[in-house]
Design a protein that fits this description.
mainly alpha, about 140 residues, globular
């Protein structure tokens, strides 16, 4: 077996156990803090699973590959919603009892807000990026209240 195959299998094994640990830790943290697992999923888990995308996007933006950075984020969101959410619900129906309509509205609002920003010369300006980061911080504040 080649070294690349061994590294791939080791990476997949570590990914599996890391995901298992993340799920267990997140559920335990939600119980300990007496908050909804949804809040943990929308904050800590979302940040942890998005960190690699953030690093890739920052690296591509710094190197002047803005289209790659935007493609990474938009493509990842489409993949997460359609493929991962779909596959997960095929394996086991997903229960979203705690899911608030506000969460969907925030996602929809900022997705729609991205459209006009991208249609203006297909460039996301600094102030627009600041608006998105500020929006996320405001959403987090509302979420944990």
């Amino acid at each position: 077996m080649s070294a690349v195959i061994i590294q791939l299998l080791a990476g997949l094994l570590l990914l599996y156990f890391g995901a298992e640990g993340l799920v267990r830790f997140s559920a335990a943290l939600a119980r300990r803090l007496h908050i909804s697992p949804l809040v943990i999923g929308l904050t800590i888990v979302a940040f942890g699973t998005s960190a690699p995308e953030m690093i890739v996007s920052l690296k591509t933006a710094i190197s002047g590959q803005g289209a790659l950075a935007i493609g990474n984020i938009v493509g990842s969101n489409i993949f997460n919603i359609l493929a991962i959410l779909g596959l997960s619900s095929i394996i086991s129906p997903l229960n979203a009892v705690d899911f608030d309509k506000m969460d969907v509205l925030v996602m929809l609002l900022f997705s729609l807000l991205l459209l006009p920003f991208m249609w203006t010369r297909f460039k996301l300006e600094r102030w627009e990026g600041f608006l998105f980061v500020t929006g996320y911080i405001a959403y987090l504040i509302l979420l944990v209240k």
